[in-house]
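Please, structure for the following, as tokens.
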Amino acid sequence: MIDVQNLTMNYGSFVALDRVSFQMKEGEILGLLGPNGAGKTTVMRILTTFLYPTSGTAQIDHFDILKDPIEVRKRIGYLPETAPLYLDMQVEEYIHFVGEARKMKGKTLETRIGWVKEACGIKEVWKHTVSELSKGYRQRVGLAQALIHDPKVLILDEPTSGLDPLQIMDIRELIKGLARKKTIIFSTHILQEVEAMADRIVIINEGKIEAQGTQAELTEQVRKRGDSQAATLEDVFISLLRAKSKKGAKRPAL
């Protein structure tokens, strides 16, 4: 479903991404885990065709992000870290607007609106102005706009950032429920989010992939590198980043 090959992104002499590669199967949830400034958002922006890489490419549902960006956009729903909401609109108005912007109309649009209203749990705030909503409900509305056109792939950048514990649990369950019909990639720097949601994990640091696989596979990889005490994802993460920090100074965050 997603095939990322040697993505590299340079900003002048600064290397934001360095030959990043990974693959995803249909119906899989992949957690892109790394500290702030690791390059996670850059990967997301490239996959959504918002940025063009310096080199490398990716395919989403067999369409190349460089050769067929419009076809790629039709197949993805994107929720950036700051949800793209119009605060002066009612939730109902906003979702209609996004659906129409996606070239949907008539019964098709009404059917999808009914689905996202139910699936994203926003019926209670349907007539509210977006500016009145809590951060949790704004995230739900953001998910609704990403899902309105029934995309095959959902790309979520820090989807639980800034939420309280109950809101985080709600969004987790919503994302896990969506995974039955969607392929989902999400970025985070929070270990618990990856443990709770991801089928597979890609650990990225300083623009490079340090390791990837299931949690069990990552633990085994770290143990083979000599850290026999690694037992949890936290152990794995710390072990990998400590090993990297010994090789050179940390880069500035983007």
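Residues 82-150 form one domain. Strands lie at 2-11, 14-24, 29-33, 55-60, 63-64, 76-79, 153-157, 183-188, 200-205, 208-213.
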